[in-house]
Structures are given as structure tokens and as C-alpha cells.
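Design review, sub-item: ligand-bound model
Attendees: FS, YL, KQ
YL presented the inputs for the zinc ion complex:
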Amino acid sequence: MRTVFHGGQVFDATNHDIADGDVAVEDGRIVEVGTGLDGDDEVDCAGATVLPGFIDCHVHFTVSGNLDPMHAVRTPFSLRFFEAARNMQATLAAGITSIREAGGSDLGIKVARDQGLIDGPRMTISITALSQTGGHCDDWQVCGASVPTFGVPHPGLPDPIVDGPDQMRRKVRELVRAGADVIKVCTSGGVLSPRDDPRHGHFRDAELSVLVEEAAAAGIWVMAHAQATDGIKAAVRNGIRSIEHGIYLDDEAIEMMLDRGTYLVPTLMAPRGVLEAADAGMAVPPEAVVKTKMVMEAHSASISAAIAAGVNVAMGTDSGVTPHGRNLEELALMVECGMTPERALVATTRTAAELLGVEADVGTLEPGKLADMVLVDGDPRQVDTLPDRIRAVYIGGRSITHQTQADVGDAAEAGVSRSLRAPLPRREG
Ligand SMILES: [Zn+2]
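KQ shared the predicted structure:
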């Protein structure tokens, strides 16, 4: 059975061009991209553009946009799993067909999707975001209690706190055992955590080099929540693959990233989301609001400088801080920071797939790739209104609107094979 997506325009993300074209799909994979294609079945794409399914490199499915710590206190333990299922559906419906989970989702959530129990994007999971004592993911509060950000540690979600190289080695092995596809570490303080500072670097080289060494031995990469200049440089120096947030970049940090091919995932929506929530009357902790206001300007300036310098930027939103399903709002913010709309679309498809190591299967419309596709009404380069113009979403060639559980199971079986590669080289600097 060959289905042709016919009569629209195509942005295949192999370059920056949009042109009239058709896409032929067979057995959940793309078999041909061209003009005047024939098939057994046809999807009318008149007035629409066909794009690769979008990829968000930074989401938290077990967090649902409520930043009031008392909300976390009142949330029953297992409710987070059901909320994650809803958040995954909302993300897929928004046109996001693959994601990287930056902390919270365990292997069971990913497998539930792969087996078709719940709908959602294909997942690359980090499970736990590693943090030093007093760091960004230390849930300890001044009252002495812990208030969970991503969920209370459980057998599928190892405790995030680690200090010293020996503990680091063991913790990475524990995460690999738990099913992590990537290791997430916080190499600086953050905005929402009450007792740290986004301008302070966290973890020392001795800890980060063991982290990267152990991850590499398991064939996986590392992503770093890194806001402070120090924390960014330590991450890059030690061969971590992507800098998340990147609030305080300086010229040297940008040079180091260019030199080593480090990716940047801006998450421009996140600080805006914190202020939006506070303005709407949500009980966001006051210190988080103060820190958010402190970093906003530096964040935009850093991302703009990195874009101008040609750093590899991959789209990521930190959804969970903001409600899930609004992911594509990030593109307009990247364009505000100096990206062309075409480059923002590539950052949300091909470059994101490369960062995740799933580019053999997704990220562009090319023969052999999985038929993860989005139909956008009109011109996708008008990124301001892009989130409102998603006409249809296909994952593994199947429309999510007519999807059965069996269909999802088949599509998942088609799978995404992550390419295993050496970590970015560690160099002195
Ligand atoms: Zn995050």
C-alpha cells in the first residue's frame, strides 16, 4: 500500500527550500519525495506544506505547568504518570513526533508509548537530572522537607543527588541500568530551584570527566542544564554534547562550543513561562520570580550571540515549566533572537534529530526515513502563527487522529535506532 501526500508544498529540511512536491509513504516509511508521484491512496495536501515531524529536545512530561510548590505537595504519587500520558498526547497533537525527556519520565512511561498503551512522541529519556547537593535538582526545602519537582525518587527514577567522582561513576551506571538513553546533569544553579544561583557553576572537572567517561562507555551522550558561564565551559570542556538554556554565554564559551561542535538548546519559552504564570496569579516561589527577571535579558543576548556565531542550535522548550502542547511557540522566539524562519524549522527537525542521534530515522523527509510528518496550513515560515496551523500529524505514516492502539504498536516497532557514537572530544581549554 503506497500512500501519496499530494498537491502541496514540501519542506524536507535537507536544505532551506520550500517547493511544490509530493511524498510517497509505504509501510510507515518514506519511499519517494518528488513531483507528480502516484500511489494506491492519496492525501490531499492542497494549501498545505508537508514537513518532517517536529522534535523538541527538552521536555518534562511528569511536570504540568504548575509552579506552585504546594501543588506538588498535594499531587498523589501516581497521578504524575497519568498526567504524563495526557501531556504526551498534547505534545504529539501539536506536531511534535519525537522528544528528548530532560528529567522525570522513567522507562515505564517510554515503554507504555512504545507498546501503544498511550499516544505520544518517540522518546529519548534521561530519567533523572543529576545534581550536586544544593544544586538545581536538589528538592530539599528550607523547612527540611523535600518537595518533588519531577517526582519522588522511586525504583524507576533514581535519586538525583551525587557528590564526588566515585558517586558519579556509580550513579551513571545506575541510570544506564534504569534505561537512560542520555545522561542529564546540572552543571550550574537554576531559576526555579530555591537555594542555588544560576550564575554559579556546579560540579568540578573531576566529577564531570567521570560522568562523560562512564556515559561514553555505555554508548550514550550527556546533556547539561548549564546557565552559569563557568558551568557551561566545564560542560563543554568535558565533552558534554548539549548545553541546555545557556543563559550566561560569553565569547570564549561560544568559541569553545564552535570548536567542539557542542549543541545549544535555548528553551526561550521557559523564563517567559515563569513570569506569565506569576502574572496570572500562580503561587510561583518569589525567589524564582526574582531570578527569572534577573536572567531574561542575558538569556536572549546569549542566544542571539550564539545564533549569530553559527553555533548548532536545536529546538527545546522546557515544556512542563509551561503547559505541554505549546512547543512550537519557541520558533517565534528563536526568530526574535536572529534566526531565519527556515533555520528555526531546521533546528526543530534535522538538527534536533542529529543532537538526539536519531537522524537515520527521523528529522528530514527522505526515502528510508520513518513517515513522521506534519501538514501545516499555508507557509510554515510564518512562525508566529505556526502553532495554530497544524492540519494533521502522522507518526510512522499513520494519522494520529485515526490511530488505534495496534497502529501505534506497529509504528513503535518500526522503531528509532539511536546511532552510537563517541562523545565529543575532551580538550583542555
Ligand atoms: Zn528542564
